[in-house]
Input
Amino acid sequence: MVLKAAFYQQPDVLEIARELLGKYVFTQLDGQLTGGRIVETEAYRHFGDASLALHLQRKAVQARGLHLPGGHAYLYAVYGRHTLLNLTTNTADRPDAVLIRAIEPTDGIEVMLQRRGLTAVARNLTAGPGLLTQALGLSPALTGLGLQGPPLWLEDRGESVFAQQVKASPRVGLAYAGPEASQLPWRFRIADSRWTSPAAK
Output
Protein backbone atom coordinates (compact mmCIF):
# COMPACT_ATOMS: atom_id res chain seq x y z
CA MET A 1 0.00 0.00 0.00
CA VAL A 2 1.36 3.42 -0.97
CA LEU A 3 1.82 5.64 2.07
CA LYS A 4 -0.67 8.49 1.97
CA ALA A 5 0.11 12.13 2.69
CA ALA A 6 -1.58 11.83 6.10
CA PHE A 7 1.24 9.50 7.24
CA TYR A 8 3.85 12.22 6.67
CA GLN A 9 1.67 14.98 8.13
CA GLN A 10 1.68 13.52 11.63
CA PRO A 11 3.19 16.01 14.11
CA ASP A 12 5.97 13.83 15.59
CA VAL A 13 8.87 13.55 13.16
CA LEU A 14 10.72 11.19 15.52
CA GLU A 15 7.85 8.74 15.41
CA ILE A 16 7.66 8.99 11.63
CA ALA A 17 11.41 8.33 11.32
CA ARG A 18 11.03 5.17 13.42
CA GLU A 19 7.90 4.05 11.58
CA LEU A 20 9.63 4.38 8.21
CA LEU A 21 11.95 1.51 9.11
CA GLY A 22 10.71 -1.54 7.24
CA LYS A 23 8.81 0.54 4.67
CA TYR A 24 9.88 0.54 1.02
CA VAL A 25 10.97 3.38 -1.24
CA PHE A 26 10.73 3.15 -5.04
CA THR A 27 11.53 5.14 -8.15
CA GLN A 28 10.36 4.61 -11.69
CA LEU A 29 12.51 6.65 -14.05
CA ASP A 30 12.87 6.09 -17.80
CA GLY A 31 10.73 2.99 -17.41
CA GLN A 32 13.11 1.45 -14.85
CA LEU A 33 11.81 0.40 -11.44
CA THR A 34 14.26 0.47 -8.54
CA GLY A 35 13.77 0.36 -4.80
CA GLY A 36 14.37 -1.20 -1.45
CA ARG A 37 13.50 -1.59 2.20
CA ILE A 38 14.36 1.32 4.47
CA VAL A 39 16.77 0.27 7.23
CA GLU A 40 18.16 3.60 8.50
CA THR A 41 16.72 7.11 8.93
CA GLU A 42 17.44 10.41 10.67
CA ALA A 43 14.90 12.89 12.03
CA TYR A 44 15.21 16.69 11.76
CA ARG A 45 12.84 18.93 13.71
CA HIS A 46 11.96 22.60 13.26
CA PHE A 47 12.30 23.32 17.00
CA GLY A 48 15.00 22.22 19.42
CA ASP A 49 17.33 21.19 16.60
CA ALA A 50 20.14 23.63 15.80
CA SER A 51 21.24 21.59 12.79
CA LEU A 52 17.98 22.21 10.95
CA ALA A 53 17.91 25.87 11.97
CA LEU A 54 21.40 26.32 10.49
CA HIS A 55 20.42 24.45 7.34
CA LEU A 56 17.43 26.75 6.84
CA GLN A 57 19.74 29.77 7.21
CA ARG A 58 22.67 28.58 5.12
CA LYS A 59 20.69 27.07 2.27
CA ALA A 60 17.74 29.43 2.30
CA VAL A 61 16.93 29.15 -1.41
CA GLN A 62 16.97 25.37 -1.76
CA ALA A 63 15.50 24.94 1.73
CA ARG A 64 12.26 26.38 0.42
CA GLY A 65 11.60 22.75 -0.45
CA LEU A 66 11.21 22.05 3.27
CA HIS A 67 8.30 24.46 3.46
CA LEU A 68 5.91 22.02 1.83
CA PRO A 69 3.26 19.96 3.61
CA GLY A 70 4.37 16.53 4.75
CA GLY A 71 4.57 14.07 1.87
CA HIS A 72 7.07 15.70 -0.51
CA ALA A 73 10.66 14.96 -1.47
CA TYR A 74 13.36 17.43 -0.45
CA LEU A 75 16.49 16.61 -2.45
CA TYR A 76 19.69 18.63 -2.26
CA ALA A 77 23.36 18.12 -3.02
CA VAL A 78 26.23 18.10 -0.52
CA TYR A 79 29.94 18.40 -1.37
CA GLY A 80 28.81 19.23 -4.90
CA ARG A 81 28.08 15.62 -5.82
CA HIS A 82 26.02 13.63 -3.29
CA THR A 83 22.24 14.00 -3.34
CA LEU A 84 20.33 13.44 -0.10
CA LEU A 85 16.73 12.22 0.00
CA ASN A 86 14.65 13.87 2.70
CA LEU A 87 10.91 13.49 3.19
CA THR A 88 8.98 16.50 4.41
CA THR A 89 6.73 15.89 7.40
CA ASN A 90 4.33 17.86 9.58
CA THR A 91 2.90 21.05 8.00
CA ALA A 92 4.36 23.66 5.63
CA ASP A 93 4.93 26.13 8.47
CA ARG A 94 6.62 23.48 10.64
CA PRO A 95 9.42 22.23 8.39
CA ASP A 96 10.35 18.84 9.81
CA ALA A 97 12.01 16.16 7.68
CA VAL A 98 13.30 12.60 7.66
CA LEU A 99 16.55 11.75 5.88
CA ILE A 100 16.66 8.27 4.36
CA ARG A 101 20.17 7.03 5.18
CA ALA A 102 20.20 3.44 3.93
CA ILE A 103 18.04 0.86 2.20
CA GLU A 104 18.23 -2.86 1.54
CA PRO A 105 18.02 -3.17 -2.26
CA THR A 106 15.13 -5.34 -3.44
CA ASP A 107 13.96 -4.22 -6.91
CA GLY A 108 15.86 -3.29 -10.05
CA ILE A 109 19.19 -4.34 -8.60
CA GLU A 110 20.88 -4.60 -12.00
CA VAL A 111 19.84 -1.04 -12.81
CA MET A 112 21.14 0.14 -9.44
CA LEU A 113 24.47 -1.57 -10.04
CA GLN A 114 24.80 0.20 -13.40
CA ARG A 115 24.00 3.57 -11.89
CA ARG A 116 26.56 3.02 -9.16
CA GLY A 117 29.22 1.67 -11.53
CA LEU A 118 29.41 -1.62 -9.61
CA THR A 119 29.55 -5.20 -10.85
CA ALA A 120 28.41 -7.08 -7.74
CA VAL A 121 25.93 -6.51 -4.96
CA ALA A 122 27.61 -5.33 -1.79
CA ARG A 123 26.81 -3.11 1.16
CA ASN A 124 28.13 -0.02 -0.59
CA LEU A 125 25.38 -0.28 -3.20
CA THR A 126 22.83 1.55 -1.04
CA ALA A 127 24.29 1.78 2.50
CA GLY A 128 24.60 5.54 2.77
CA PRO A 129 22.42 8.54 1.88
CA GLY A 130 24.46 9.62 -1.15
CA LEU A 131 24.80 6.06 -2.42
CA LEU A 132 21.13 5.14 -2.30
CA THR A 133 20.05 8.25 -4.21
CA GLN A 134 22.53 7.47 -6.97
CA ALA A 135 21.23 3.90 -7.09
CA LEU A 136 17.64 5.14 -7.25
CA GLY A 137 18.43 7.73 -9.94
CA LEU A 138 17.46 10.71 -7.79
CA SER A 139 18.81 14.25 -8.21
CA PRO A 140 18.03 17.70 -6.79
CA ALA A 141 16.01 18.41 -9.95
CA LEU A 142 13.29 16.17 -8.51
CA THR A 143 12.88 18.10 -5.26
CA GLY A 144 9.28 19.01 -4.48
CA LEU A 145 7.84 15.79 -5.89
CA GLY A 146 4.90 14.30 -4.07
CA LEU A 147 5.65 10.91 -2.53
CA GLN A 148 2.65 9.07 -3.95
CA GLY A 149 4.41 8.74 -7.37
CA PRO A 150 5.50 7.61 -9.78
CA PRO A 151 8.26 8.59 -10.23
CA LEU A 152 8.85 8.42 -6.45
CA TRP A 153 6.77 6.73 -3.77
CA LEU A 154 6.90 4.76 -0.52
CA GLU A 155 4.98 1.62 0.38
CA ASP A 156 3.91 -0.19 3.52
CA ARG A 157 4.12 -3.91 2.77
CA GLY A 158 2.91 -4.97 6.18
CA GLU A 159 6.30 -5.80 7.67
CA SER A 160 6.62 -5.18 11.40
CA VAL A 161 9.76 -3.73 12.95
CA PHE A 162 9.53 -4.12 16.71
CA ALA A 163 10.95 -1.70 19.26
CA GLN A 164 13.66 -4.15 20.33
CA GLN A 165 14.94 -4.27 16.73
CA VAL A 166 15.48 -0.51 16.55
CA LYS A 167 18.73 1.15 17.57
CA ALA A 168 18.72 4.90 18.26
CA SER A 169 21.97 6.89 18.17
CA PRO A 170 23.32 10.37 17.31
CA ARG A 171 23.00 11.65 13.77
CA VAL A 172 26.00 11.80 11.46
CA GLY A 173 28.22 14.79 10.63
CA LEU A 174 26.54 17.44 12.77
CA ALA A 175 29.48 18.64 14.89
CA TYR A 176 29.10 22.08 13.29
CA ALA A 177 25.67 22.43 14.94
CA GLY A 178 27.08 22.17 18.46
CA PRO A 179 27.21 19.38 21.05
CA GLU A 180 23.51 19.40 21.90
CA ALA A 181 22.29 18.90 18.32
CA SER A 182 25.07 16.48 17.43
CA GLN A 183 24.25 14.19 20.35
CA LEU A 184 20.49 13.97 19.90
CA PRO A 185 19.69 10.25 19.43
CA TRP A 186 17.60 10.87 16.33
CA ARG A 187 19.21 8.35 13.97
CA PHE A 188 17.23 5.11 13.82
CA ARG A 189 18.22 1.82 12.25
CA ILE A 190 17.26 -1.83 12.15
CA ALA A 191 20.03 -3.14 14.38
CA ASP A 192 20.59 -6.51 12.71
CA SER A 193 20.55 -5.24 9.10
CA ARG A 194 23.80 -5.54 7.18
CA TRP A 195 22.61 -2.74 4.90
CA THR A 196 22.90 0.14 7.37
CA SER A 197 25.49 2.80 6.59
CA PRO A 198 29.11 2.43 7.76
CA ALA A 199 28.51 5.38 10.11
CA ALA A 200 25.95 3.32 12.04
CA LYS A 201 27.31 2.16 15.41
